[in-house]
Structures are given as C-alpha cells and as structure tokens.
C-alpha cells in the first residue's frame, strides 16, 4: 500500500522502480512480484491508533500497501453495538480504504496475551491440558474471524520455567507437554480459519526477563535448545503452523549479543531444524531497540536480511515510516536483498491465499 515519494506521481514512481529491479538485478536474482515501493510496504505488519475507520490514524494506513495491520486492546473503543461489531467495522473500513487506494486489503493480525483486544470469546489464562487448549483456541478462532482477523499472535510456545518470562503464560516446563498443547492450539485455529503464530522462536522460557521489557539472555547451549525449547515449535510446524514469531532474546548458543529476530542462525534453525516453510514473523522491532540500541528502521533491514518474511512494528507511525523508507532504500541498493524480499512476499502470498478474508 503505497505512498508518493518525492516528485511525480506515485504510479509513475512505481513504474520507474520496476524498471530498476529488472535492469539492475543480475540474472541469478529473483524479480520482485510488484514494484519496489509496494514490495517494501508489503513486508510490514503495523499497529495503529484509533477505533474507527474515520480516525486520522486509521486513514493514514491507506497511504501504503502494508502487508498487515495489528489490532490491539487500544483499538476496541467503547459505545453501542458491542466490541466485536466495532472492531469488525474498523477492520472492514481499513480493508475498504486499501482497496479504494488500489491495494489489496491487508492481513489483519490480532494480538495475543496481555495485548489482546477486550473481546468476549478471546480466552484469558492458561489452559490446563491439550484438550482445553484446543477448545479455547477454537472459541478464539471464531472471535478472530468474526472481527475480520486472519492471524492471531499465539500460542506461547515457550517453556514455562518457574523463573522465566513464560512462567504464567506457557503451557508447561516439560517440552513434551508444551508441544502437545501448542500443536492442539495450532490445529484448532486452522480448523477455525485462522493462522496461529506461535512464539517466540527458538524459545525464551529460560530468559533472564521478558525481552519486551529489556535485554534478556538465554544461556543455554544450542544442543539444549534443540532438545528442549525448540520441541514445541517443531510440534507446531508438524501441526501445520503457517506463521512462527521470532524472539527478541539474545542467546549464548550464538553470539550472546544479537536478538534472535535479527540473527541468520536463528532463522536457519527454524527452517532446517523444524522443517518450517511458512511465514517467519519478526519480533516487535520497537522492542528490539531496547537491546540493540539502534533504531527500529535499522532493525527492520537487519531482520529482513536475516530471514524474516514480515516485519512487525506496532508503533509509532514515525517509526513505521522510517523503517519503510530504510527497507525501500536497502531494496533499491541490493539485488540480493530484493531476492530475499521476493521469497518473503511469496510466503506471505501463500498465507493470504489460505487465511485472508
């Protein structure tokens, strides 16, 4: 979903960008499926303020061909008609404005956990077993679909270590138990027409703190990660997970400094270690900055290079625009990165075909 950059018409800029991709990219590169301006936007999932399609912050979304938007608690609002009805009108309005601007309606992601919208039917608390996990996910899928959602951020596949960030949100400290319940939720969501996005890969149950609150280290060696923390994610993949979300934790198994969402090695473990072929969603790149000390824009480019297919920036609008511009510049400059982006967009297109609408 596109906005004009510099002088001239947006459509004219798109045509020029398309020529650049065809003439600069080497024969071995993969061409982008859309002009580079649109491709850059389609790589993002963005949050937004506002509770009505009439709000300025919501209207702003139609300036770009965003790949997805994320509905959170603050988007529910109040008033007559019920919360679900209000959010459904909101998401329908976002999609309608996008189509009117000449773009595809964005995928609608619904936040899980503490950020979940205040809607009846979105469960609270942790299920006690796989049967209840599946039942809760089935109810949640119905609600997510009813508000126009396609993807729900969850379940938490991290091991529920007693002193870790998933102590109260994870299913179990036992990898086998966590795997069974994670898979049950993934299957139940898919049966309800919703893609689950288990997180946070490769597992942050052993982190020193919640990575969303600040720098957090997982001190486990790689072999232990494979044999324990990665197990629920492998089960999710086997259950048909279409999306996996990456972690903002740093891992002693690698350099102990770089968040997993920015590490090629973490994406390699996801792809090769679990056989995952779906969409790799970055961690919250606004939160990534607390560890890296850099900007969300820099994190977006680094995450794309590392292997992320969708780049999540819940807010603010200025960060989203700066990240978009950074990715756009990087795509224009690098045929290799355009090939990486084309791969990411192909995976997202598959997600859209299966779950959108």
Task: Describe the overall structure.
The structure is a single chain. It contains 13 helices and ten strands. The protein is α/β, with parallel strands linked by helices. It has a single domain (34-355), classed as TIM Barrel, CATH 3.20.20.300. The strands form two sheets. Strands 5-4-3-2-1-10-9-7 form an eight-stranded parallel beta sheet. Strands 6-8 form a two-stranded parallel sheet. The radius of gyration is 19 Å and the shape is globular. Residues 1-27 have low confidence and may be disordered.
Record the SSE blueprint.
Blueprint: H1 10-24, H2 36-42, E1 44-47, H3 56-59, E2 68-71, H4 83-100, E3 107-110, H5 130-146, E4 151-152, H6 175-191, E5 195-196, E6 217-218, H7 222-229, H8 231-238, E7 243-245, E8 250-251, H9 264-274, E9 279-284, H10 285-292, H11 296-306, E10 310-313, H12 317-333, H13 335-355
Parallel strand pairs: 1-2, 1-10, 2-3, 3-4, 4-5, 6-8, 7-9, 9-10
Helix pairs in contact: 2-12, 2-13, 5-6, 6-8, 10-11, 11-12, 12-13
């Amino acid at each position: 979903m596109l906005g004009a950059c510099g002088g001239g018409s947006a459509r004219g800029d798109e045509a020029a960008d398309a020529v650049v991709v065809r003439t600069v990219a080497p024969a071995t590169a993969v061409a982008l499926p859309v002009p580079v301006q649109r491709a850059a936007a389609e790589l993002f999932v963005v949050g937004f303020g506002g509770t009505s399609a009439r709000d300025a912050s919501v209207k702003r979304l139609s300036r770009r061909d965003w790949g997805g938007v994320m509905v959170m608690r603050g988007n529910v609002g109040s008033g007559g008609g019920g919360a679900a009805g209000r959010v459904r009108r909101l998401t329908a309005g976002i999609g309608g404005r996008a189509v009117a601007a000449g773009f595809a309606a964005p995928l609608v992601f619904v936040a899980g956990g503490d950020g979940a919208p205040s809607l009846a039917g979105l469960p609270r608390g942790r299920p006690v077993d796989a049967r209840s996990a599946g039942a809760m996910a089935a109810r949640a899928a119905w609600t997510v679909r009813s508000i126009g959602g396609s993807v729900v951020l969850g379940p938490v596949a991290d091991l529920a270590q007693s002193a870790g960030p998933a102590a109260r949100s994870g299913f179990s400290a036992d990898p086998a138990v966590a795997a069974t319940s994670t898979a049950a939720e993934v299957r139940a969501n898919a049966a309800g027409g919703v893609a689950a996005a288990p997180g946070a890969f490769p597992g942050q149950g052993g982190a020193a703190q919640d990575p969303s609150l600040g720098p957090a280290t997982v001190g486990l060696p790689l072999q232990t990660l494979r044999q324990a923390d990665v197990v629920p994610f492998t089960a999710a993949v086997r259950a048909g997970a279409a999306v996996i979300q990456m972690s903002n934790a740093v891992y002693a198994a690698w350099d102990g400094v770089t968040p997993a969402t920015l590490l090629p090695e973490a994406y390699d473990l996801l792809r090769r270690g679990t056989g995952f072929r779906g969409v790799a969603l970055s961690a919250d790149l606004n939160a990534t900055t607390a560890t890296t000390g850099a900007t969300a824009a820099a994190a977006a480019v680094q995450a794309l290079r590392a292997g992320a297919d969708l780049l999540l920036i819940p807010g603010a609008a200025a960060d989203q625009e700066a990240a978009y511009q950074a990715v756009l510049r990087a795509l224009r400059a690098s045929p290799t990165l355009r090939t990486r982006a084309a791969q990411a967009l192909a995976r997202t297109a598959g997600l859209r075909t299966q779950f959108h609408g």
